[in-house]
Amino acid sequence: MSRSRSHTGPSHSPAWAPPAAAEQIWNEFSKEESTDEATIQKSFIRHATKTLARSSYNMDQFAAYQATAHSVRDHLIDRWNATQHCHSVKDPKRVYYMSLEFLIGRTLDNALLNLNLKDHYKRAIGGIGFTIEDLVDEEVDAALGNGGLGRLAACFMDSLATLDYPAWGYGIRYEYGIFQQKLVDGYQTEYPDYWLTFGNPWEIQRLDVSYDVRFRGYVEKYVDVSGQTRYRWEGGEKVVAVANDYPIPGFQTKNCINIRLWSSKPKKEFDFASFNEGNYDKSVEEQKAAENITSVLYPNDNHMVGKVLRLKQQYFFVSATLQDIIRRFKKTSRPWSEFPQQVSIQLNDTHPTLSIVELQRILIDEEGLTWDEAWDIVTHTYSYTNHTVLPEALEKWAVPLISDLLPRHMMIIFELNLYFLQRVEKLFPGDRDRLRRMSVIEEGHPQYVRMAHLAAIGSHHVNGVAELHSELVKTTIFADFVEFFGKEKFVNVTNGVTPRRWLHQANPGLSTLISEKLGGTAWLKDLSQLDKIKAFADDVGFQNRFMDIKYKNKIRLAEYVKDVTGVTLSPDALFDVQCKRLHEYKRQHMNIFGVIHRYEKLKSMSKAELEKVVPRVVIFAGKAAPGYYTAKLIIKLITSVANVVNADPQTSEYLKLIFIPNYNVSVAEILIPASDLSQHISTAGTEASGTSNMKFVLNGGLILGTVDGANIEIGEEVGKDNIFFFGALTAEVEDIRHHQMYHNVAMDAKLQGVIKSIQSGRYGDSVIFEPLLGTLRSDYYLLSKDFTPYLEAMERVDAAFKNKSAWAKKCITAAASMGKFSSDRSIQDYAKRIWKITPVPTTEEFA
């Protein structure tokens, strides 16, 4: 496990130590900078002139943002160095959170708030002639994630830092995000999301931290000096993984941890011989092939080249991360048997599962351990978070693909599967069907590796992310594994969100009001204190202030919508939001069908009847996967209906429909605080948890949703009067599907009316939408069954919204009930029950 040692690489001479006379100077200089205005201004100007090479004559707002970011980063680096020094001296057990996504969003505002420097910088930067709010808006969202999985990982890193846990995040430094979404003639169109066009002032490139990563090659069998048969992986091609560090500060603590992101580089950047021969493309071929690995978040795998690249991406990430973890462990000179006492690795979904096989390979092939010794270490090191029970979403890789790209790993997978199935056979003799179900290898032509099975076998704990989801994990996809391993291996850790980002930063007005009532900001590190706000739920003065904050947030969103879409919204209307990835199971199509039903109903009303209607603004946001045709058709239907609804003078006062393109974290920070109602309407039993539902309620919005995912636990906390539930229950879903399949079940009459309206051509060429409407014939996601209950729930929402005081009480009570849903609580659950780690505060002696 040695680092890359190319002739251009770093020197590996012994660590430098300052001369005794310089020790004091070194220590003084490395102390955290002062936060007075003059010092901040000097820091800003130093970075503007020295780092950016700007002068007062060519400073614009973007350059001012960059100078500010570098100035703030200095504080982060000071704290990061102190934290790492503390952890090195105290040598605690660390957790390593492996995730192919970290949806961080913008950093400047979050860093200033966590460092408690925003007011200082506001005054200092104001004295130079800029406003901190304008500079915050100059930052581009870090395109390192895709959706809920990546945003959860970002929340967890914030909580790990805030709670002083010794932790590292590991991921990939994608040059391009998933894509930028634009609407062209109402269709989603994908454009490159090159978020690094102007660099990234927050990252620290570590050219001295680099590792070789091998692909392909061959496996050589040999006998070692003790007579044992061994294997080694040789040949093939190599690329270099280079570390890029992204500091993550805790809130009201000196602790600052790190996400280490890997970028891929070639072993040999330039083929000079080919260049001299005039073959210029070939001279840089290796460079392009290497850099492709980390170019794009989740490369499209609809074709073989995409599949190879995605598997390369996963192993590249796994190999570099393990080499880095092992290097850090070896510095302690501990025996391998103590590895699980020092290292806990959390797999965020199945994407990093090859890490299990890679550690086994390193231990037996490179460190000389026996198979059983190595496997005991592996299975006491890893834990795995499952994020779905949908069969089509469970990751599988073709055996021939793994065999070609990672030949030694495929051998190990076959071997560990054989040993595992032999143990299963002993416990359940003669049960061949059970062996087939539990095997890591799915038989067929070709065979496939079931990554979820591999993760479950190689981990000491498997957790779901909401109570219902964790129960479904145990009773569906892992039912056989529960029987084999026992229930104690399969646990629940309900997701959470960080209140620092999703209330303090996104909704400063509400954060200030809560702090005023609770006598300080301690609640931001102990969200259970929110419960005390319930005492003000009936207070008319508090209700008015609470709803006035909501109203101002709605004005802010209306201004954003006007800028982006040109549509004018009234903040007096009920703002009804559904923002999430486009997917049939999330049922955005039921929402748009409901909008069509509402529109048709409004068209039939008299003027007197219209005057009694609650005006509603329905807002959609989210991306569809580029190859997901049905999801993209849903977007087209939304935009087509919006064109008609928003232009209708008869109804536009009472109904507006908006699709906000290119949804990301920064848009969410505007959208979520402004919602009166949010929709979380997945078919029961399909949504693992959801976290946007938590963010909406935390910001004083109410949920209309199915009894699914974390909606259930939110309902338990806020009370049944403060959430609008509807629809089939999880236990009923399979029976309903079976009944629909074998009986001639009539479609819901109201849904039929919506379909006829679409087919009439009112919203454009109906032929376009036939494939979407065709999905209702089998109706796997139960739109027909749930449509009338959905509309009835909407009527309950309208009735409740008319009573302003009662609505305010519901919102206040719901928001005050969200203490459970802090990511701090989630992380404490992981730390105590799964990782077995304790906080290690960075004390003054290290600062």
TrEMBL record:
GO biological process, one term: glycogen catabolic process
Molecular function per GO: glycogen phosphorylase activity; pyridoxal phosphate binding
Job of this protein: Allosteric enzyme that catalyzes the rate-limiting step in glycogen catabolism, the phosphorolytic cleavage of glycogen to produce glucose-1-phosphate, and plays a central role in maintaining cellular and organismal glucose homeostasis.
Family matches, as NCBIfam families: P_ylase
Keywords attached to this entry: Allosteric enzyme, Carbohydrate metabolism, Glycosyltransferase, Pyridoxal phosphate, Transferase
Organism for this UniProt entry: Spizellomyces punctatus (strain DAOM BR117)
Family: Belongs to the glycogen phosphorylase family.
PROSITE patterns, sorted: PHOSPHORYLASE
Protein origin, superkingdom: Eukaryota
GO CC terms in record: cytoplasm
Residue numbers carrying N6-(pyridoxal phosphate)lysine: 695
PANTHER family: GLYCOGEN PHOSPHORYLASE (PTHR11468), GLYCOGEN PHOSPHORYLASE, LIVER FORM (PTHR11468:SF3)
Needed cofactors: pyridoxal 5'-phosphate
EC number(s) stated in the UniProt entry for this protein: 2.4.1.1
Top-level class of the enzyme under EC nomenclature: transferase
Catalytic activity, reaction form: [(1->4)-alpha-D-glucosyl](n) + phosphate = [(1->4)-alpha-D-glucosyl](n-1) + alpha-D-glucose 1-phosphate
Name under which the protein is recorded: Alpha-1,4 glucan phosphorylase
